[in-house]
Amino acid sequence: MEVSLNIDGALVGHYTDLKRATGCTVVLFPQGATAGMDVRGGAPGTRACDSLTGFRSAGKIHAVLFTGGSTFGLGAADGVLRFLLEKGWGVKIDHLIIPLVPSAVIFDLFLGSSTTWPGAPEGYSACLQARESTPLGTVGAGTGAVIGKLLGTSHGTKGGLGWTLVQAGSLKVGCLAVVNAFGDVIDPASGEILAGARDPQTGEFLNAAEAMKRGILRQIPDFTTNTTLALIVTNAQLSRNACIRVSQMAHGGMARVIRPFHTDFDGDLVITASLGEEESDTNLVGLMAAQALEKAILSAVKAATPLGGLPSSREMGR
């Protein structure tokens, strides 16, 4: 399934390796974007993201990279930088062009290969594929994503990549999400688990939140192998601080569909990119961003396909 972004100034490209269960996704902003970020998870993995926080003087960004491969996968940003330099896209300082590529990772090394991850060639390849629409599910940075790891990756459900656009008049707020959460993904209308940790005996959903209350928590030193990454893209005209506020508000979308969320084991973050000249109240954009993130997470889960022996939500009959 492929959907149109329907927002001027943004292009999305993917590199997907189904054999090794990994990949990367790049969102390009040829004209640049004002951006801000908010991190809520306890275990983020990022590169060049400090400029997206408050009281920074960096200029506009021209791409965002989400990638698999944990910290190793951050090397894919080198390929994005090369592509941007060839295009002449970046912050102009005297005779130089300096592209800004905030990047964030998910941990997908337990599903596929633990020795192969996206690098500069894969990041560059994703840029070459960039267009005004995107496939959903098991693609790009969502290729090796897994949801519900209370009992480990092998007892989770396939995660993925999603996109949703929310619109109010001429105001557009879209969200691209990579869902690799520790917790379960819940249908907010019915309360039904759509994807999550599975009982080793029955294969049915365990209900991670209730299992944790019963004392079931994997006792190993560190299993920070989870993250939900989100990029909000809007045609609203926002300052950096307003982008940060929208990112903060957008996290509410995770709260509605992931349980538990923002744990010590997740690297959850939201980046907001402002592309347009549409005048709007920041609070309205934040409200719509939370709605878009909620729906993007659900779209990722519903579009995911089985991989590496893990079932998808659809395969589980949800």
List keywords for this structure.
alpha+beta, L-amino peptidase D-ALA esterase/amidase, 18 strands, 5 helices, single chain, 318 residues, 3-stranded antiparallel β-sheet, 9-stranded mixed β-sheet
CATH architecture: 4-Layer Sandwich
CATH-wise, what's the superfamily? L-amino peptidase D-ALA esterase/amidase
From the alpha carbons, calculate the radius of gyration and give it in angstroms.
Answer: 18 Å
| Main structural class | alpha+beta
Q: What is the total tally of β strands?
A: 18
Q: What fraction strand?
A: 25-35%
**CATH overall fold name:** L-amino peptidase D-ALA esterase/amidase
Number of helices: 5
Low-confidence spans? none
Overall pLDDT metric:
92
Please identify the top-level CATH class: Alpha Beta
Largest sheet: 9 strands, mixed
- Taking the alpha carbons of the first and last residues, their distance comes to 18 Å
Which descriptor suits the 3D outline? globular
The share of residues in helices is 10-25%
Order of helices and strands: EEEEEHEEEHEEEEEEEHEHEEH
**How many discrete domains?**
1
